[in-house]
Amino acid sequence: MSLPRSIRTALLAVEQAEGAGARVRRSIGTRSLRNFSPFLMLDHFTIGKGAGFPDHPHRGQETITYLLSGGVDHEDFAGNKGTIGPGDLQFMTAGRGIMHAEMPHENPDGSPNVGMQLWVDLPKQLKMCEPRYRDLRAEEIPIVKVDDGRVEVKVISGQSHGVDSVRDLAYTPVWIFDVTIRPGGRLSQSLPKGWNAFAYTLAGESIFGSNDKTQRIKEFHNVVFEQEGDYVEVSVPDNAEKESRFMLVAGQPLDQEVIQYGPFVLNTKEQVYQAMMDYQTASNGFERSRGWESEIGKRMT
Question: Is 84 helix (H, G, I), strand (E, B) or coil?
Fold first, then answer.
């Protein structure tokens, strides 16, 4: 017998300054929500002209960037360059070491660049793997419609109602859905047993939960589900003024210690100290950082 997942907590993501001129709503990686394996951080970011994330290193994690509007350029010390636009994603595996920059477009109409960035932990045996990138374009993402078209699910990663996503985008198994529910719509989404899961609300008002255990959640909240259960249920009342939109994400927990210092995420303090030393001395994965400067990062100078 399938059982619904109940809500553990729902947290408002308060906007704050981050990076150089960016505004961020952080909901995972805060004092209220840590150690939610495999998730390390979730940022809902807004970056405009003169802002961005110039040259900086990473080791030991994966970052998944989903652009909601605008454009973001990327460049790293290995010569990789790219741009993601509305609805596109970039899956970056930092592995043993990467140094890169992420800078926003200057949109002709002056509009900001808005997106989500999720940090996912790497299993300890993959912490020192070679870095890699995988882009996923908006047109590659399959879409499934349910409940007579009142519900639309973009299947970024995982499976929804018999529709599979593009495969092998991240080393750590994660399911990611971008869900829109029109007034009167209802979604029942199965999730892998034992995985941690959350929903981040982007617009409108959604009713999460089943039967007599429901909560009405407004935008910019992170809804954390209990680990027990087989599916998540979400609905929007018939008389709602507008549709709701949210990200639904689930990931396989990792049974390992998490020691994080800024952009370095390892399993012991010694490994973090080593990462700092390797970065400072341009060694053990950071060799190409010596003297490197991104072209896109120079926009801020």
Answer: strand
